[in-house]
Amino acid sequence: MRLSGAEIVFECMLREGVRHVFGYPGGANLPLYDTFAKYPQIQHILVRHEQAAAHAADAYARVTDDVGVAFGTSGPGATNLVTGIANAWMDSVPLVCITGSVVTALIGRDGFQEADITGITIPITKHNWLVTKVDDIAQAMKEAFYIARTGRPGPVLVDIPRDTQQQTAEFSYPETVNLRGYRLPTHVDHSAVRRAAQLIADAQRPVILSGHGVIISRAYSELKQLAETAQIPVITTLLGISGFPGTHPLYLGMPGMHGMYWNNIAISESDLVIGIGMRFDDRVTGRLKDFAPHAKIIHVDIDPAEIGKNVRPTVALMGDVKHVLTDLNKEVHPKDHPEWKAWLERMRQEHPSIALPDTDKLLPQYVVQKIYEATGGNAYVTTGVGQHQMWAAQYFWYDRPNSFVTSGGLGTMGFEVPAAMGVQVAKPRDTVWSICGDGGFQMTLQELATIVEYELPVKFALLNNGYLGMVRQWQELFYKNNLSAVKMFSPDFVKLAEAFGMVGLRVTDKTQVAGAIDKAMSHPGPVLIDFVVDEAENCYPMVPPGAALQETIDQPKIERPQRGEVVTRR
Ligand SMILES: Cc1ncc(C[n+]2csc(CCOP(=O)(O)OP(=O)(O)O)c2C)c(N)n1
Ligand SMILES: [Mg+2]
């Protein structure tokens, strides 16, 4: 079969099961766009900015078993993808970005719209290719999808000059890939599994720290079996949320910088921390040298580079979480830790870290609670980055596996809108709530046009505090309340929604919250609710940056002047 380079790209995508491409055209990828009409099996979603294409494809990949695909043209199209690629890199999301490059004769000559995108993305891709021969496209595509989805997943980028997309070649899709130096774990070390099982049998105060790896490997039932068999309380990292049922009696919530006080103290008192598919990120561990001072550590991870990077494990179990836990579960015997569990329960009672004050004010956390109540947890939630992200993690109970989609590692403001778009494309019949910050929303709100055009019924809850809230919180606490560049003017969000052709609602009073949420849910199309929340609210508990988990601020008494008055929190 003799095909153009562009057609070869599409034949490869078909064979890889691609059904949606998020992208944006330009001079250097026009042959690819010229080919869409021949492949109606693949739907193109025309975003309004390439960053959104990468974020949407990233979120799409998170909630499906598919790889996300994003297209961009050369130069600015490609560089606009960079934040999205870095986001997928930090959160281990399989993403294939396909960029058009300037024609081969112009490469390296600073031709119009040339950017060395393979050079630029080396540190944030698992691998990338500049394919200058049409005969090499199929091989590169096969490898790209293989590398993106196998092992620890991640983004890759294939850059194809425009003339290479137009040349023709005989097409056959490689059956296998053979990549020197790219090795995947093939088996789990059984002696390590037995040692880990022994540590679990010996432990008096164990905790599981469950991360994104549990979700990526879809190891929900294996994790549940381990936790229930040995009665081990489960703490999930931010990205681990929804890997274990949020209302399970063994579930303790999130640890770390804005984690529950009881969790941070539990980790500090624990004698065995079982880190599963997580990487002991600084937002989880606090000051490393004081992390879990009394605990032995079992670390399960597929990426050898993670073992011992931050925390030296007593036993390392390398491999896919699902395989490792399947093997481990065979060796773990029923056990209970009634005293430990009772102690944890007492901590929870004595430090109800997320109890809301009884107030008539419209608190942002209250909005999240009400969305949880209205959906019964049966929804996907995406967020941006900041206080609203932490409240979305703290006040919503994610029973549904893999239903919380957030930017963890990179902490990318602006993720909330395109991520919701990607999830809704992947899950057209499910409810998708995008919990937004007023700052982050304004970074990618142009995608409301895409959302309306493709009739995606996303519900937006804008927690509008008039501030870059999380940064203001840091300035209040760590920069002597010197508020600098954090108060933010915003447009009339209701009018804005209407300008895009969607329903806009405004809520300024606590009593209106539930009604507005119901109205949004019963409307068949996209809705934006501008929740004008209490602008002074801060996010607690909090471990100050650089502090240890033991130093969690649980019940703050913070005073800060505002509009001439003194506001006392809690
Ligand atoms: C792209 C990007 N720029 C800057 C930051 C730093 N940052 C982290 S949280 C935050 C404030 C976010 O404000 P908003 O979206 O309104 O959320 P809020 O904290 O008020 O809920 C900022 C500026 C970031 N995370 N991402
Ligand atoms: Mg804000």
Number of helices: 23
Give a count of the beta strands, DSSP E runs of length 2 or more: 22
User: What portion of residues is helical?
Assistant: 25-40%
Low-confidence stretches: 558-570
Beta-strand residue percentage: 15-25%
Bound molecules: thiamine diphosphate, magnesium ion
Distance between the termini: 71 Å
Spatial strand sequence of the major β-sheet: 3-2-4-5-7-6
Rg value: 24 Å
Name the shape in a single word: globular
Q: Could you give a short account of the major beta sheet? A: 6 strands, parallel
Mean pLDDT rating: 96
* Category by helix and strand content: alpha/beta
Description:
This protein is α/β, with parallel strands linked by helices and 570 residues long. Helix content is 36%, strand content 18%. The strands form five sheets. It has a six-stranded parallel beta sheet, with helices on both faces. The protein has a six-stranded parallel beta sheet with strand order 11-10-9-12-13-14, with helices on both faces. A six-stranded parallel beta sheet has the order 16-15-17-18-20-19, with helices on both faces. Helix 3 (50-63) packs across helix 18. The longest helix is centred in the N-terminal third of the chain and has 14 residues, at 50-63. The chain starts with a strand and ends with a strand. Thiamine diphosphate binds next to helix 17, helix 19 and helix 21. Magnesium ion binds at residues 437-439, 465, 467-469.
